[in-house]
Amino acid sequence: MTAKRWFFEEPLTQADPEVARYIAAEESRQRGQIELIAPKNYLSRAAREAMGSIVVFATVEGYPGKRYHAGVENVDGIERLAIERAKAMFAAGHANVQPHSGTQSNQAVYFALLSPGDTVLSMDLSSGGHLSHGLKSNLSGRWFKTISYGTTADGFIDYEAMERLAREHRPKLIIVGGSSYPRAINFPKVSSIAALVGAMTLADVSHFSGLIAAKEYPSPFPYMDVVTTTTNKNLRGPRGGLILTRDAALGRKIDSAVFPGIQGGPLPDVIAAKAVCFGEALKPEFIDYARRVLSCARTLSSGLSARGFKIVTGGTDVPFTMVDLRTRGLKGDIAQKALEAHGVTTNRNLVPQDTESPNVTSGLRIGTSAIAARGMADAEASELAEIIADVLDRLAKNPGQGQEIDSSIAERASALAKKFPLYPT
User: Using CA atoms, how far apart are residues 178 and 131, in angstroms rounded to an integer?
Assistant: First the structure.
């Protein structure tokens, strides 16, 4: 190959075998394991093609029709499609598809609606909130005053405490949603509390936006002012963010906050994949997918409960279930490692009134978006509940040897993965 052609023609396995080796190993891992980490999911083949297309080389600062570079008409068309599809999915007045992540979506809302030092009322991290909602080590917690509400003793949002804190502290913004609250949010109630103090409202629906799109979870509109979500969870899209507003006027503030406020140029390849996955979410088949996601989560929840595990709030309305391990004398980090060793990936997670650190935790978050994307349903979710319970029971009975792999359990997980393969090899 001539020196002029290698750049465009040499494959990765030849150009950089070390990186290629890690990618091959990761593909093998994903094919052979059962993914139950709530934020993880798969793209359709079509969305992967869009994301890996030549669109990646476009530079498109600004918005469709108002770019700062030439040669953008095709990317403009793609972004307009993504915007219109996002609005249709959520019955929104405006959509911005450019945020690189859910956290940057939330940062853009802060930038648009607040000034440094303003007060924000949001859910405590251990109760189910997210670090970008005001955690002290996050930009949102350093630049703004965060007041936290939590949950009742049984794990449900304490709306009385929310109202009391709102009246006392007069926040400029009230945030609901997050990363590990397993129940439906009362959006009309939050809206009424915000109206009492003149606050704006933000719903971070990242972990259940696919259910909203399929009408399997209450819609935040018309009650909430702004909605943010990631696109990679149960929307089955690429890693990225999305901001939706109730009306177009507020949307213009959001646009300015994203660019030039907190980001430069967007990622056209990611926007192309978003457009594809949004189109998929508007098809009737997506409703079946979303229903299986929720049904699998509830089957996992009831199955683990039947095996004696404590489920936060006693069940779930979202694509994951939260398991409180304290009644079994287990820690989240140890349980996570044991399950991974048997071919089932989950993640340790704080649970309400948790006294452990975020690196240890007293709970597990177990999600079903990825298994539903593979085609699994209630029967498989029930089998996974038994696999998880068998691993954790073994660990609880003998902490010293419980980390060792039980080949019979691992083979059951492997058999499920083989029965529901990923992309053709």
Answer: 9
| Distant-in-sequence contacts of 152-157, Cβ < 8 A, 24+ apart | 154/313, 154/314, 155/182, 155/183, 155/312, 155/313, 155/314, 155/322, 155/352, 156/183, 156/313, 157/123, 157/127, 157/181, 157/183, 157/185, 157/186
Q: How many domains does the chain have?
A: 2
| C-alpha span between 235 and 51 (Å, rounded) | 15
Question: Is residue 25 in a domain?
Answer: no
Instruction: Give residue 127's pLDDT band: very low, low, confident or very high (50, 70, 90).
Output: confident
Residue 24 lies in a domain: no
Domain range for 306 is: 284-419
- Write down the pTM of the prediction: 0.95
The residue among 266, 281, 296 that closes a domain is: 281
Tell me whether the omega of the peptide bond preceding residue 284 falls within 30 degrees of 0, making it cis.
Answer: no
Looking at the fold, whether 159 and 292 belong to one and the same domain comes out as no
Residue-wise pLDDT for 216-249, tens only, equals: 999 999 999 999 999 999 999 999 999 999 999 9
The Cα-based distances of 224 to 34, 133, 189, 221 in angstroms read 36, 16, 10, 6
Cβ–Cβ < 8 Å for 95, 252: no
The reply to whether 276 and 314 lie within a common domain is no
- The domain boundary, picked from 231, 255, 281, lies at 281
